[in-house]
Structures are given as structure tokens and as C-alpha cells.
Design goal:
Blueprint: E1 4-5, E2 20-25, E3 34-40, E4 43-49, H1 60-70, E5 75-82, H2 87-90, H3 93-102, E6 107-112, H4 125-143, E7 153-154, E8 159-160, E9 168-173, H5 176-191, E10 207-212, E11 215-219, H6 225-232, E12 243-248, H7 260-265, E13 267-276, H8 288-296, E14 300-303, H9 310-315, E15 318-319, E16 325-326, E17 333-338
Parallel strand pairs: 4-5, 5-6, 6-7, 11-12, 12-13, 13-14
Antiparallel strand pairs: 1-17, 2-3, 2-17, 3-4, 8-9, 9-10, 10-11, 15-16
Helix pairs in contact: 3-4
Length: 341
């Protein structure tokens, strides 16, 4: 299995339109914007997981969608997922839903990982304000009649995500256990007159498997050590029976979220890819010990922070007929999940 970078325009997926799901890691610095994409019956089906404003104050989801429009590629967004309530995963969501509304782009549905009247009730104050604004943007979008399922979905353990029928995409976290633990932890802090601890929100992180027959890839968001322990003990999930093609390393390579025993237990394909979505940060991500352990397990480790210099990047910018920035994804990292194996 090899990872590659490059634009959709040059992808071989056009020559085998129903054979592959591509996991596209947009280069946003410290955080995530991920596209799942696959051609089927002449349509590019997309799922968007998280939406981060990049290091140049641009919305990587929007610039890519502008590119698809510019190239007149017919596409359908089946779902928009916000993996968990941390800003480096959702701070571009308001702009994204406004863009979808302004351009009259339909989506199938949308999802948070934990909802209570579409709110995250036990969060630090800065997150509450932003989440409330995101909810308003989603409400305005749905009122325009552009969402097939305007109620949204509360995804969790085993929930299937729509893309198209050729692939199985399931969300194995958060389970009821993680949700309950999140509420217990944050409520205890509130009872002590403290602000909720932001790291507790990692308990709400999605773990998404993109499966094709006997192979799969895993997107792990900021999932916790305990969540990976639960998955190892869950016979329904049973990841050990299939071959792993690639992973998103949890929490940008943090050693506090890296469960070595979980990754050792999985059966990997040759040259299995481990993508660390990372940029400039104050946390020391990725941890050198995590990178070393992944390499010792024969993962090919790749990081998303491969932007060119500002000078080079600006020289290569492209714009559409409205002078809006478009981005074909030359700096994206892509994992392929083939249908036929």
C-alpha cells in the first residue's frame, strides 16, 4: 500500500471509476479536513469529516469544492461529520455551511458525535459560543431546503455512514460508554465550580472504518487509549480479521492517545500507511516516541505539514472566474481503499 499526493485532476480513479475510495487529507496544519471520495455512475460521491481553517486563514474544504465546481465535476456530498468538539476540527464549519447555502449545494445529512438538542452542553465557554454559531449556520442551511435529512444524525458505535453501496463505512466510536464517561467527567468538574476540561471532549471522537471486502482503513480523530481498549474487546467490531491498509494516527501523534497494544494486534498489509495530521503546535505533536513505535511496527509514517513556503505557495495560487481561490489538492495526502482485492 502506498500513499500519494496530488490533485483529483491527475488521479487514476477516473480510469477505474467505481473501484476505489480515496481518503484525502487536506493540508490544514494542526487539525483536520478530510474528504472521502469515490466515483460511481459518473458522480463523485463525497463525505466531509471535519473542517479546519488552515494556517493561511483559508477554508480547505471550500477551496476544494470550488475547484470541483470550476472543473465542472459532478459531485454529491452524502454527509458532513464534525468528529468531536475541538476547534482544530470544526472552526471552518460555519463558513462551510454558508458556502453550501450560497452555492445551493445539497448534502445528504450531517452529524455531530454527541448531541443534546444539537448542542454540546458541557464544554468550556469558548467552545459553547462557537458550537451555538455552528448550529445556527446548519439551521439556516437546512431551512433553505438543501439537506435531505435536516434532522441530522447522532452517530456512534457501529453507525453506518453514507457514501455509496460499493463500500462499507462505519463509525465505531463514540459508544454509549464514552458518552456517559464524558458527561460524568465534565459534570464532576462543574460540581467543583471548575470549567469543563477540554481534553475530555476527546472521548467523543469518531473512529471510522472504510471497508472493502477483506481490507480497510481507519480514521481515528482524537480517540482515547480507553476507546481503543474497548474496540479490541468488542467481537462485533472484529478488526483483527481483515487487513489494514492505512490509518490516521490519533490526536496528531500524541503519545497520550497512542495505544501500542491495539496497533500491534492488527493485521497490516505491506507498506501500511500511518498519516499524522499535524502542523505548528505548542504540544510537541507528533511525539517522537509515537513515530518510532509506528516505524517499529512497519508503518510508513507520513505527516500532512508539507506546505511549500509562503512565497512558493502564493506564486502557484489559482483562482476561478470570480477571483475566488481554488485548490486542486496538490499538497494533499491520499490513502486508497480498493474495492477489488
Amino acid at each position: 500500500m502506498k500513499i500519494k499526493s496530488g490533485s483529483l485532476e491527475n488521479d487514476t480513479i477516473h480510469s477505474s471509476p467505481e473501484a476505489t475510495v480515496k481518503i484525502r487529507f487536506r493540508n490544514v496544519g494542526q487539525g483536520d479536513t478530510i474528504f472521502l471520495e469515490s466515483f460511481h455512475d459518473g458522480v463523485l460521491y463525497l463525505a466531509i469529516i471535519d473542517c479546519k481553517i488552515d494556517e493561511y486563514a483559508e477554508n480547505a474544504a471550500i477551496t476544494y469544492l470550488r475547484y470541483l465546481e470550476y472543473k465542472k465535476i459532478k459531485f454529491k456530498i452524502t454527509i458532513v461529520v464534525l468528529s468531536h468538539p475541538h476547534r482544530d476540527h470544526y472552526d471552518g464549519a460555519i463558513q462551510l455551511f454558508q458556502f453550501l447555502k450560497d452555492h445551493e449545494i445539497h448534502i445528504g445529512t450531517y452529524a455531530h458525535t454527541y448531541t443534546c438538542d444539537y448542542r454540546f452542553p458541557l464544554l468550556p465557554a469558548y467552545s459553547k459560543t462557537t458550537i451555538a454559531r455552528i448550529n445556527m449556520a446548519i439551521d439556516e442551511y437546512c431551512k433553505a431546503g438543501l439537506c435531505d435529512d435536516p434532522d441530522g444524525v447522532d452517530i456512534g458505535n457501529g453507525y453506518p455512514l453514507p457514501l455509496h453501496s460499493q463500500f462499507e463505512i462505519r463509525c465505531y466510536s463514540p459508544s454509549l460508554h464514552e458518552k456517559k464517561l464524558y458527561r460524568t467527567n465534565t459534570q464532576a468538574r462543574l460540581d467543583q465550580d471548575n470549567e469543563p476540561y477540554s481534553a475530555d471532549a476527546n472521548l467523543l471522537s469518531t473512529i471510522i472504518a472504510i471497508k472493502s471486502k477483506n481490507r480497510y482503513s481507519l480514521l481515528t480523530s482524537d480517540a482515547t487509549m480507553d476507546t481503543f481498549n474497548r474496540l479490541m474487546q468488542n467481537p462485533v467490531v472484529n478488526l483483527q480479521s481483515s487487513e489494514l491498509l492505512g490509518i490516521q494516527v490519533p490526536h496528531h501523534g500524541s503519545r497520550n492517545n497512542f495505544n501500542l497494544e491495539f496497533w500491534k494486534a492488527l493485521k497490516k498489509c505491506g507498506n501500511c500507511v500511518a498519516v499524522i495530521s499535524v502542523g505548528k503546535n505548542k504540544y510537541g505533536h507528533p511525539s517522537p516516541c509515537v513515530t518510532k513505535q509506528l516505524q517499529d511496527l512497519d508503518f510508513k509514517v507520513c505527516e500532512t505539514n508539507n506546505y511549500p513556503s509562503e512565497e512558493v505557495r502564493r506564486a502557484n495560487l489559482k483562482y476561478d472566474e470570480n477571483s475566488d481561490l481554488i485548490d486542486a489538492g496538490e499538497n494533499d495526502l491520499i490513502i486508497e481503499v480498493p474495492l477489488v482485492v
